[in-house]
Write a structure and sequence with these properties.
alpha/beta, four-stranded parallel sheet, 308 residues, four-stranded antiparallel sheet, globular
């Protein structure tokens, strides 16, 4: 049996996430303390007792979701189910940073600071209201890429997240994404849903954020991960720290190739995926991509105990 540890991205955040882990496992509490110290603020207070609108701000959601994932990792480690149990790690967008922290490639403190920088840079790359994202349901990647190309009309419109065979997200200029939503329905999409996001992630409009991240990542030590990372932009394994650094920069403007990443796991003999942290979104996607991979959410002490 080969297990992949997978880490959720933005959208999984919820008030109270990770609190039970911190109360049950001192090592999980220590993660939240470490992230608070790295950021110079009580992010844990926002995560556990704050306002969901404030937690959902990109600059808060990104380090908060990583902290919750790493708290779950520490709980697993306390029960003897650490990174050595995994054959691979992978994460959806910001989850790639959680995967790298979990596999020892980047320290938790550096990861928290990188994600705070990434969130701020992505938010400020495009003025609020000028960009948008939409989930296209019921068309495959090739069809959505054709829709995006037709909708662009001189603006930016790209397939940003290839999530599963039934869902591809487009990102870009607001007018172009709205056109894509209309065209997609004309082309047979079941639905086209405008997403409640504050910026158009994973498209060319994010280039200013990619430039910021290139500088930030250059200043951080990255080690070879303890287990191979399946990278978002390549949908295959990487272990070289310099390549990882470059791919994290490319990831800001590049597509999240999640469907292909899960298909790659299956070709490598992965039979279980443990979704480490908040929510169960990735587990749902994995079921739609390849039912031979059993998925398990690991976000509470009960979840950890079930694995023992």
């Amino acid at each position: 049996m080969t297990i992949a540890f997978v880490f959720p991205g933005q959208g999984a955040q919820a008030i109270g996430m990770g609190k039970a882990l911190a109360e049950s496992y001192p090592a999980a509490q220590a993660i939240f303390d470490e992230v608070d110290e790295a950021l110079g603020e009580k992010l844990s207070a926002l995560i556990w007792e704050g306002d969901i609108a404030e937690l959902t701000l990109t600059q808060n959601a990104q380090p908060a979701l990583m902290a919750t994932s790493m708290a779950a990792m520490r709980a697993l480690e306390a029960e003897g189910l650490g990174i050595a149990k995994a054959g691979f790690v992978a994460g959806h967008s910001l989850g790639e940073y959680s995967a790298l922290a979990a596999s020892g490639a980047i320290s938790v403190a550096d990861t928290a600071r990188l994600l705070r920088t990434r969130g701020q840079a992505m938010q400020s790359a495009v003025p609020v209201g000028e960009g948008a994202m939409a989930a296209i349901l019921g068309l495959d990647l090739a069809a959505v890429q054709a829709v995006a190309q037709e909708a662009a009309q001189g603006d930016v419109c790209q397939a940003a997240n290839d999530n599963d065979p039934t869902q591809v997200v487009v990102s870009g200029s607001k007018a172009a994404v709205e056109r894509a939503a209309v065209i997609a329905k004309e082309k047979g999409a079941k639905r086209a849903v405008m997403l409640p996001v504050s910026a158009p992630f994973h498209c060319a409009l994010m280039q200013p954020a990619a430039d910021v991240m290139a500088e930030a990542l250059a200043a951080v030590e990255i080690k070879a991960p303890a287990v191979p990372l399946i990278a978002n932009v390549r949908a295959e394994t990487v272990t070289d720290p310099d390549v990882i650094r470059q791919l994290l920069v490319e990831q800001v403007t590049g597509s999240v190739r999640w469907r292909e990443s899960v298909q790659y796991m299956a070709t490598q003999g992965v039979t279980e995926a443990w979704e480490i942290g908040a929510g169960k979104a990735l587990s749902g996607m994995i079921r739609k991509i390849d039912r031979s991979i059993a998925s398990k959410a690991v976000g509470t002490p009960d979840d950890v105990q079930k694995l023992l």
